[in-house]
Amino acid sequence: MSLARIFEDLSPHARVATAVLPFAVAMLLRLVLGKNRLTGVLISLSTTWFTINVLLAPLSEGMRRDIFDLRAWFR
User: Fold this and answer.
1) Domain limits, the chain
2) Which DSSP category does 9 fall into?
3) What is the pLDDT of residues 2-58, one digit of tens each?
4) What is the phi-psi region of residue 2: left when phi exceeds 0, alpha when psi lies from -120 to 50, beta otherwise?
5) Can you say how many angstroms the Cα of residue 67 is from the centroid of all Cα atoms in its chain?
6) Which of these, 39, 53, 71, lies nearest to 3 by C-alpha position?
7) Are 53 and 19 in contact (CB under 8 A)?
8) Which of 2, 45, 11 is nearest to 25 (CA)?
9) Which residues contact 49 (CB under 8 A, 6 or more apart)?
10) First CA to last CA across the chain, in angstroms?
11) CA–CA dist 4, 23 (Å, integer)
C-alpha cells in the first residue's frame, strides 16, 4: 500500500481536514507562542502541505471521477 492510496480512501471532508488542520494548528500556535522561528517554520511547512494537497487532489482517481461527473452534470 502506497502513501497515495491512504489519501484516496479518505472522504472529501477528511481530505479537507488533512489539508487545513495543520495550517490552523500552526496559526493557533502563532497566536499562543507569538512570532518566533518555530511558528514561522510551522506556518511555512503547513502552507506547503496545503499547496501540495490542493495541486495533487485532481490527480487522484476519485477526484478525477468527481470532476468528470460535475462536467456532465452541467451539460
Assistant:
1) 3-73
2) T
3) 655 666 666 777 777 888 899 899 999 999 988 999 999 999 999 988 888 777 766
4) beta
5) 17
6) 53
7) yes
8) 45
9) 19, 22, 23
10) 37
11) 21
Q: What is the pTM of this model?
A: 0.61
Which residue matches cell numbers 477526484? 63
Integer CA distances (angstroms), 63 to 7, 21, 69, in order: 11, 20, 10
Query: Residue 45: phi, psi to the nearest 5?
Result: -65, -45
Could you tell me if 18 and 10 are in contact, meaning their C-beta atoms sit under 8 angstroms apart?
yes
- Give φ, ψ of 2 to 5 degrees: -90, 165
Handedness of CA 43, 45, 48, 53 (dihedral sign): negative
* Cα 13 from Cα 72, distance rounded (Å): 23
At CB < 8 A and 24+ separation, what contacts does 56-59 make?
57/15
